[in-house]
Amino acid sequence: MVKVRFAPSPTGYLHVGSARTALFNWLFARHEGGQFFLRVEDTDLIRSKPEFLEEIIASLKWLGLNWDNTTLEYQSKRLEKYRAKAEELLQRGVAYKDGEAIIFKVTPGQIISFDDVVHGPVQFNTLDIKDQVLIKSDGMPTYNFACVIDDSDFGITHVIRGDDHISNTPKQILLYQTMNLPIPKFVHIPLILGTDRSRLSKRHGATSIQEYKNAGYLPDAMVNFLSLLGWSPGGDREILPIEEIIKEFDLKRIGKTGAMFDLTKLSWMNSQYLQKMPIEQLLPLAKEALNAHGWLNGTLDPAWVAQVVELYKTRIETVEDFCKQTRGLFTDEIPFDPEAVALRLKQPGVAERLTKYAAKLEALPKWDTAGIEAACRALATELGLKAADLIHPTRVAVTGRSVGPSLFHILEVAGRDRTIPRLKSAASTLCAL
Ligand code: GLU
Asked: Which of 4, 85, 187, 237 has the greatest number of C-beta atoms within 10 Å?
């Protein structure tokens, strides 16, 4: 049976690159009906922190990457095992002591080769490999040593990990050979690059999964996006439900070269998922985000909140973007875009137009889209203007922005009590030339 593992070191938050590694392991296990283990590589006593582990686990759960072992494996709980194995190698004379440390002797001039599932045949000469520390003087195992013992004890069949570990692989193979253990298959997946093709780092923006979660990205969109970083199902399909990704996932289709993390594509993908999301799923997310801003007071009618979500759902990239676009509806702080104000409000004749439109709207017996639109068209005709000459400034006066859903729908949802005072206030202050 296929057995794979994700082996994070809890020395930092879950990086998008590590999340992609976890995802590829998970997808492969699910595709093959195998098992996916989570192993905590917490042997760095100084840099490992429980809060990092909590965050890594929370991020994996958020992404939906469930693992198969009910109890997690912690390397820190297996120290006896590593020491006993190192002791055996000492006894056999293939390792030696240096103070408290135990070191493996590497015989120079051997060729170590393996057939990487992604990269094909890879060769190293042991001349380039120094003697390997197995147990450090603080009693903790090194990564390469603990990794080999654990992968072997848990019967790991495929080691799927980042390209940056290729140079560790011959060191691990030497240990497998010395201890007479079966060698798993190695699958080294390409690094994730920023749009400038350099290694993805903070410089390019958010790198932890948690930041994307907080910014209002959906886990399904994130998983879909990550699955296409270095893998493709063939053709130009991009939006794929998870069942489809699992069905299509194939190690042979993993590319050799770096995969580009394109935030614009992620945002587009997220907007596609938001658009398709049933309102009963989207509404709680929107409410949670509005609440986090302190904008959802108890007096708001839940049906009205749902109306606002419906109105904006096709034009938002993230849930946070929804909050940004609708701030003027949920609060009295209208997020005026200075460019929009300059272009649409600070123009000759605009104050007068807005005042007249406010008067027409005030006289409407019924506040609905049809009436609001009819009033606009009638006034435009009266003033000898195009409807757009009223629509653009009204949108900025009421929402602060020059883009958004259909104006008449916005005004209906904004209601009489927001719309009319805002038109008047823009006319008397913002429109001043
Ligand atoms: N703890 C290692 C890392 O986070 C695991 C590497 C491996 O999968 O072997 O890079």
From this structure: 4
